[in-house]
Amino acid sequence: MGIEKIGLLGGSFDPVHLAHIALAETAWRTLGLSQVQLIPAANPWQRQALAACAKHRLAMLNLAITNRPWLQVNPSEVERGGATYTIDTIQQLLPGKEYYWILGSDQLQNFCSWRRWEEIARRVCLVVALRPGSELTPPKALQELLSRQGRSLITLPFPPSGISATAIRRQLALGKPTNGLLDVAVAQYIQQNALYQAPVA
What we know:
Elements: E1 5-11, H1 18-31, E2 35-40, H2 54-64, E3 71-73, H3 76-80, H4 86-91, E4 98-104, H5 105-109, H6 117-123, E5 125-129, H7 140-149, E6 154-155, H8 165-173, H9 184-192
Parallel strand pairs: 1-2, 1-4, 2-3, 4-5, 5-6
Helix pairs in contact: 2-9
């Protein structure tokens, strides 16, 4: 029995949408992972304030993983509270497993601005999916670090998705349908709890 391989997909999940699930499933199948953990941020320091509170975002995530046993919700960042830094999350992971941090190519471009990014790159395998408007080319400093380690970025065969939580929130605020963008149970939860009704800037 080899070392257990676990995928980690962090994000605001504000709300979780079908592209998040598709990305997690692609990583799970492509890399032969035992599971993918979805990690909702408490307070991402590089973006604007979240529209839905942690309670609602966790509830939507739990609905989205129903009947998907290969998906798990990891609430560590929400439970920790405060500003969300990836390195703190990685330090809380259980030892003895191999971890794969999944990110979009848009996040890859500013990876070297993350707190203690060198340590992150040493402790997990970096898995990148192409996002519209950005490239899969890593920053020079990251590429040099990986080269010294004899490692490379893992790229996923994931077609760029135009689905974004910002666009979904805008649709919801305007009362427009979100068919094909959200899990049905998540869409019902949003409606029942009157989420995302305020206009999006």
